[in-house]
Specification:
The termini are far apart. It contains eight helices and seven strands; from the N terminus they run E-H-E-H-E-H-E-H-E-H-E-H-H-H-E. The chain has a seven-stranded parallel sheet with strand order 3-2-1-4-5-6-7, sandwiched between helices. The chain has a single domain, classed as 3-Layer(aba) Sandwich (Rossmann fold). The protein is globular and about 50 Å long.
Length: 251
């Protein structure tokens, strides 16, 4: 199919859509012909970011809330009549050393980064089963395969995302649904922008660590999500795709 039409007629849900990877992915999906339910927190500026795009309906809902999966799935069914692509992208990157890690921080990170993935997937599954090309894509991290000091909760959650992805692939393949996760490296997003600005040496570390010599941009991840959502990836399932500029090849 021609460039610009790779998602023609498809319906997608993208969580964490107000900024960064989520926003770039919504814009990319729409350019490629998809209709999109764009979700983010009630306090987010999602309407300002995406409200003027055609074929986009915004839903302000915290994905950790009990009724979030049902509300978001119903929005897809009501607005567009179904669902083909679920992109579990909402996340947080809070961290602390293990001896300083509180139960509250642990629970928060796991709720946003891991539990919401299984709950959103479970809630959207009835619609995805009706699709002739169902796709589940989740945002993992290079920390799905590696680790770093001070990132116990984040690392545990992202390892979990990769594990869930493999299970989704095994359980849902019989319905024609693929499941994959993207493992971004250092990407310039709303979460990381202030961190890099506050500590230029940290930014330089990741630039130098990447074989390509730069930080990633949200569009780099959006293009990976587009591939996994498209017919080009119809026989790709159960993988974690590193999109890190080669940063982890020397680890």
């Amino acid at each position: 199919m021609a460039i610009g039409q790779r998602l023609e007629g498809k319906i997608a849900v993208v969580t964490g859509a107000a900024d960064g990877i989520g926003k770039a992915t919504v814009e990319c999906f729409v350019r490629e012909g998809a209709r999109v339910i764009a979700n983010d927190l009630p306090s987010s500026k999602i309407d300002e970011a995406l409200g003027t795009l055609e074929n986009v309906v915004t839903v302000k809902k915290d994905v950790t809330e009990q009724d979030a999966p049902a509300v978001i799935a119903e929005a897809a069914a009501s607005a567009f009549g179904g669902l083909d692509i679920l992109f579990n992208n909402a996340g947080t990157a809070a961290g602390a050393p293990v001896d300083e890690l509180t139960d509250e921080l642990w629970d928060h990170v796991l709720a946003v980064d891991l539990t919401s993935v299984v709950r959103m997937t479970r809630g959207c599954l009835p619609l995805l089963k009706k699709s002739d090309a169902g796709r589940i894509i989740s945002t993992g991290s290079v920390m799905s395969s590696f680790s770093a000091p001070g990132m116990a909760a984040y690392t545990a959650s992202k390892h979990g995302v990769l594990g869930l992805t493999r299970t989704f692939a095994l359980e849902f393949g019989k319905f024609g649904i693929t499941a994959n996760c993207i493992q971004p490296g250092a990407i310039m997003t709303g979460i990381t922008r202030d961190v890099f600005a506050a500590d230029p040496s940290f930014s330089d570390y990741w630039k130098n660590k990447a074989a390509l010599g730069r930080l990633g941009q949200p569009e780099d991840i959006a293009k990976a999500a587009l591939f996994l959502a498209s017919d080009d990836a119809a026989f790709v399932s159960g993988i974690g795709m590193l999109v890190d500029g080669g940063a982890m090849q020397g680890t």
